[in-house]
Design brief:
transmembrane; about 70% helix; mainly alpha; membrane; transmembrane helix; 4 helices
């Protein structure tokens, strides 16, 4: 409610997309293990001694989580980037 109230007053800060990104990251951290386990649940992995099927599954789950976090970090970097000085000067002149 506060975000909806404050976002029209500060359009340059992009409060709503930042808040949505925060909620999305919190939601993804809760459901990531489930997504990873759903991906690997139907795959039959070989069972060689040092590399057991559970190890293969954990590796794949961790790769999926890492990929999702990289995508989310790129998105948040775009959201939280500070405007350049030339853009700020153009906005001040307008």
């Amino acid at each position: 409610m506060i975000v909806r109230m404050m976002s029209p007053n500060f359009p340059d800060l992009r409060i709503r997309p930042k808040y949505f990104a925060l909620q999305f990251v919190l939601m993804m951290t809760k459901i990531q293990p489930g997504i990873g386990n759903a991906i690997v649940s139907s795959i039959a992995f070989p069972c060689w001694y040092p590399l057991t099927p559970s190890l293969y599954k954990n590796i794949i789950v961790q790769i999926v989580i890492l990929t999702q976090m990289v995508i989310l970090s790129i998105w948040s970097q775009k959201l939280y980037r500070t405007p350049s000085k030339s853009t700020m000067k153009l906005n001040a002149l307008s």
